[in-house]
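# step 3/5: fold
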Amino acid sequence: MRLTMVGTGYVGLVTGVCFAATGNEVVCLDLDQRKIDILKQGGCPIYEPGLTELMEKNVEAGRLAFTTDQEAAYRDAQMIFICVGTPTAKNGETDMSFVWGAADAIGRAIKALGPNQEPKVVVVKSTVPVGTTHAVQERIRRIVGHLPFSVADNPEFLKEGAAINDFMKPDRVVCGVEDDRTAALMQEVYEPFVRQGHPIYIMDIRSAEMVKYASNNFLATKISFINEMANLCEAYGADIARVREGMCADKRIGNQFLYPGLGYGGSCFPKDTLACIQMGNQSRVHTQLSQAVHDVNQRQRVLFFKKIEQHFAKEGGLKNKTLAFWGMAFKPHTDDIREAPAVSLMTLARSAGARVRGFDPVAADNVERENPGQFEISDGLYETLRGADALVISTDWDEFKSPDFAKMKALMASPVIFDGRNLYKTGAMERAGFAYYSVGRAPVIPAMVS
């Protein structure tokens, strides 16, 4: 099948590459010439394990191409997937400008092709408020008149760091359609990915749009819930690790997305939770739980920073202290720093007068590009610690899990760790001679360190 991806961001590029891998002819369209130049030269504008290699393989096979030419990208496409960004605006609402721009361009392309064309299927894959796909349909219809086309909604469920596997072996595929022909085409293009028995759910468009928001809002709720429980554990002397073990043994609860820490970040959970709140405001539905999930999440990083402030209060505060940060991406195996707790904490520390130094295996360039000159970026794990008054662990990369504690202690000005991901056992930290603060567990306080 001939497919066009509109947008070469995270969703568009992963989707296009994976569709090409099953034999489809895929064109990835983007108006950003810099991105297209990088892709044509064999580079990849995002970090995602396995993506570059799979992309190169399909380019070499002639199944994958990149362009800024809208007319060429749309002309022969049987299905057009809108995969553009829908960022959150400053007022908390979803910015739909890229979606509307794509819809208008597709409408003009369909109009130019005239009445003898094969009807194109315009698939909205971007995460959009309920009702958007029909708005796209109406927008195109105003341009093309009676020329044939159809629309569908096809939400993505990709985890950054595991996106290739998620696409190739999905838990489910959700397709919102209005007619049998579109449903058949959606089933045809996704059939290679569900041969292990995972379902393709064909449903109405508005329900498909809502599935994505309901899913992400629920996962965000689990994260905020376990963090609230962790805060209660700290207040009452319980251990969240033991509490979690006992709680998650209940099969009704399970253990996914129930890890205490600094809260969720990235491009999905924050944006989608706010979108549910926005949809509630617009429809006069009081989304009290969604608002609480968001508030708890934002407060979590502030509460963690207070631990840092309280530790250094007896030394006159953070002014002129050096804080080393391990991890700056919002999660491991990605270079995405959108809504990253680490960046929030680094910004708070810098505002308090601290010198901030950070290390991340893949996200360092993005941090420097988005925050030029604000933070010192280190090239090495241990080099980051040299002369540091404390280490803050903000992303749970594998290489942070079994470090050389003796080497760390020798490099640091003072042996203090603030662990926002609960990577280490408190007993081991006490034996190693560190002051150690984590989430939902009793701290190894300085007075206890030998």
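# step 4/5: annotate
The two ends are 67 Å apart (CA to CA).
# step 5/5: archive (pending)
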